[in-house]
Inverse folding.
């Protein structure tokens, strides 16, 4: 079973993703900020990460940088309400595998998770 980490400061969003991912056959690890995500990544070694951009303690872009330092093969889908082109392009250049605009429906969450764990590379899904 593949393991996905959901990183978002919103407990509601984490619960929504967790429910969809578990229904889709994934094991799920949750983190409420970037600092916690780094600790959880080291401990749980997830196969993919849904990462919110705007969070307290450590924002998503900084967290993405740090995750890639830990593991250059980290598979991250960056998720944001503010899908500005500069954020999306910057995240993809840094090493995000995908960039998505919130809100995500359950089907898309599972689809993206499957793409994260797939050996095939992919790009922008943002609208």
């Amino acid at each position: 079973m593949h393991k996905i980490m959901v990183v978002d400061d919103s407990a509601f969003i984490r619960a929504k993703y967790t429910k969809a991912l578990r229904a889709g056959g994934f094991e799920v690890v949750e983190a409420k900020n970037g600092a916690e995500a780094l600790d959880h990544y080291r401990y749980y070694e997830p196969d993919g990460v849904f990462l919110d951009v705007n969070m307290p303690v450590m924002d998503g872009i900084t967290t993405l940088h740090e995750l890639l330092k830990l593991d250059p093969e980290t598979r991250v889908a960056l998720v944001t309400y503010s899908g500005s082109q500069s954020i999306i392009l910057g995240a993809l250049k840094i090493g995000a595998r995908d960039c998505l605009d919130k809100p995500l429906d359950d089907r898309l969450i599972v689809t993206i998770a499957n793409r994260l764990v797939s050996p095939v590379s992919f790009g922008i899904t943002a609208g």
Notes: The first helix runs from residue 11 to 23. Residues 3-117 form a domain with the Rossmann fold fold (CATH 3.40.50.2300). The first strand starts at residue 3 and ends at 7.
